[in-house]
C-alpha cells in the first residue's frame, strides 16, 4: 500500500511528537518520509492489567519475579480498590478482577515448565511500564 508524498488531506494531526512539532499521520514529514501511527492491539488478559501507583507496581514486579503469579494476584485486588484498566469500561470491575486472577493462575500452573515464570516477569514489567506512563 503505497502513498503519494503530495497528499496532505489524509490522517489526523498528532500533537504529541518526539520533536514537539505537529505532523499529520500519512503526510510527508520534514525528512521526506511518511509518518505512520502504530497501535498495539491487546488481548483481554493483557488489556486487563491495571494501572497502579508506581511503588505498588514495583512490589508486584518483585513478587512476580520470585513467586510467579503472586504479584499478578495482588494486582487483581488493586482493581477492586480503584486501579484503572482498559477493559473496565467495556466489561466491568468484576470481570477485570477475574481476568487478572485467571492470569495469575495461568502463571502459577505453568511456572513448573518455566513458561509461567517468564510470563510472570513480563507481566510485572508491563505493570511498571503502565504505572510510569
Structure description:
It is a single chain. The chain is mostly helical and about 130 residues long. It folds into 2 domains: about 1-40, no CATH class; about 45-130, no CATH class. It contains 6 helices and 2 strands. It has helices at about 45, 55-65, 70-80, 90, 95-110, 115-130; strands at about 15, 25. Strands 1-2 form a two-stranded antiparallel sheet. A hairpin with an 8-residue loop joins strand 1 (about 15) and strand 2 (about 25). The longest helix is centred in the C-terminal third of the chain and has 18 residues, at about 115-130. The radius of gyration is 19 Å and the shape is globular.
Q: Low-confidence runs (pLDDT<50, min 5 residues)?
A: 1-24
Look at the structure and give the mean pLDDT: 80
Q: Sketch the major β-sheet.
A: 2 strands, antiparallel
Helix content: 40-55%
Cα-atom radius of gyration: 19 Å
Counting structural domains, the number is 2
Side by side, the strands of the main sheet go: 1-2
Order of helices and strands: EEHHHHHH
Q: What form results from the Cα inertia axes? A: globular
Structural class: mainly alpha
Distance between the termini: 33 Å
Output the number of helix runs. 6
- Beta-strand content estimate: under 5%
- The assembly state of the depicted protein chains is single chain
Number of strands: 2
Main location: membrane
Pfam family, one: Spec3
Transmembrane segments: 54-83, 95-123
InterPro entries: SPEC3/Stum
Amino acid at each position: 500500500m503505497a502513498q503519494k508524498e503530495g497528499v496532505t488531506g489524509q490522517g489526523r494531526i498528532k500533537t504529541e511528537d518526539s520533536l514537539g512539532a505537529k505532523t499529520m499521520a500519512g503526510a510527508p514529514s520534514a525528512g521526506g518520509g511518511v509518518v505512520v501511527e502504530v497501535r498495539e492491539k491487546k488481548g483481554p488478559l493483557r488489556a486487563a492489567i491495571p494501572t497502579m501507583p508506581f511503588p505498588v507496581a514495583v512490589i508486584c514486579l518483585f513478587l512476580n519475579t520470585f513467586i510467579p503469579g503472586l504479584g499478578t494476584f495482588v494486582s487483581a485486588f488493586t482493581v477492586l480498590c480503584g486501579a484503572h484498566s482498559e477493559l473496565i469500561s467495556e466489561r466491568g470491575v468484576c470481570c477485570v478482577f477475574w481476568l487478572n486472577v485467571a492470569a495469575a493462575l495461568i502463571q502459577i500452573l505453568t511456572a513448573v515448565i518455566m513458561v509461567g515464570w517468564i510470563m510472570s516477569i513480563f507481566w510485572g514489567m508491563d505493570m511498571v511500564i503502565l504505572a510510569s506512563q
